[in-house]
Amino acid sequence: MRNKNKLAGVALAAFAAVCFLLTVSSASGQQAGSVEFALRVTPTSGQAEPVRGMTVFLLRKSFADIRKEAEAAEPILDMNAFIDKLEVSIEMKAWMKKHQRVDLSGPEFPKQLAPDDILTVPEFSKAFSDRNSGDRTIRLPVAKYLKTDPNKYPDKYALELKEYQDELRHFIETHPETLESLDIALDEVKLNPGPRWQHLQMERTARVHRNTMDLAGTVYLAASTDTDLDGHGRFAGVGPGKYWLSTLETEAIAGDARVRWDFPVNVSADKTAAVQLSNVNGVEIASHE
C-alpha cells in the first residue's frame, strides 16, 4: 500500500499533542471518549487492502468547511478592476468587460469575436490586418478611404469608409477562419493580458491552499496518528463532541483507486466510537488530479 504526499511532520505531531491535551482539559471534568478506526481501500478489480502508515487527523471542523473558510477570507479577484488598469484602448476594455474575458487566446477566443469588433476595437483591427494583409490567398476589401483627404472631401471620405466597413464586415462573416490567428498577432505585441490574470489567480489559489492547511494544522487540529500495519488507528482521551477523521489532501492508493477521507464522528463520554473508512465513505480522486 502506498500513500501520496504524506503531510505529518515532527512539528505538526508535537503541536497536535498539545492541542489534544488542551481538548481533554477543556472537558471540565467530563469523562473523555475515544475513537478507533480502520482504513481499507478497494481497487476496481481486487480485494480490500489495509492502508498502512497513513496519517489521519482528528479535526474539530470538516476539512471541506475549513477550505471554505480559507476561501472566504481571501478577497475575490475583480476582473473589471484588473481590466481598468490595462494599457489598452477604451474599446478593448469595453469588449473585455462585456465578454468577461481577458485571455485573448485559445479556440474559444475567435468565436467571441464579431465583425464589428474588428471594425471598432483598434487592437483587433490592427491584429486582423497584420495577420491577413500579407496572405496572398486572402483578398481583403480595398480601403479606398485611406487615399481620400477627410478634411477636403469629408463626404467622399465618409462614403468610402462606410463602403469599406460594409465590405470588410461581409468578408469576415463569410471568412470566419481569418479570425483564428488573431491571438498570435496580439501575443507578438504583448497585448494579451491573459497570462497576467492567470498568474494572479494562481497566487490566490496558493494563498487559499496555504491558509487551509494552516487552519487544519493549528486552529482545528485535535490530534493526529498513523495507521498501523493492519490499517488501524486510535485516538484516546478525546473530549465529547463532533469531530472529523480526515486525511487532508493525502490520498490512499490501491491499484486504480485513490481515496481521501473527511468523515464525521461523534464522541461520547466514556465511550469508544468505531469507524470503518473505505471507498464508500471516502472521496475518490480522479487519476488526472
Rg, Cα atoms, Å: 31 Å
CATH architecture of the largest domain: Sandwich
- The secondary-structure element order is EHEEEHHHHHHHHEEEEEEEE
| Quaternary form | single chain
Count of individual domains: 2
Q: Strand share of the residues?
A: 15-25%
Q: How many beta-strand elements? A: 12
List low-confidence stretches.
Answer: 2-29
- Largest sheet report: 4 strands, antiparallel
Shape: elongated
**Percent of residues in helices:** 25-40%
Structural class: alpha+beta
Rounded to the nearest angstrom, the distance between the terminal CA atoms is 19 Å
Number of helices: 9
CATH superfamily of the largest domain: Immunoglobulins
Average predicted confidence as pLDDT: 89
Strands of the biggest beta sheet: in what spatial order? Answer: 1-8-9-12
CATH fold category name of the largest domain:
Immunoglobulin-like
CATH top-level class of the largest domain: Mainly Beta
Describe this structure in words.
The structure is a single chain. This protein is of the alpha+beta class and 289 residues long. It has two domains: 124 residues, Immunoglobulins (Immunoglobulin-like); 116 residues, no CATH class. Helices cover 39% and strands 20% of the residues. The chain contains nine helices and twelve strands. Strands 1-8-9-12 form a four-stranded antiparallel beta sheet, with no helix packed on it. α2 crosses α9 and α6 packs across α8. The longest helix is centred in the C-terminal third of the chain and has 24 residues. The chain is elongated, with a radius of gyration of 31 Å. The N terminus is likely disordered.
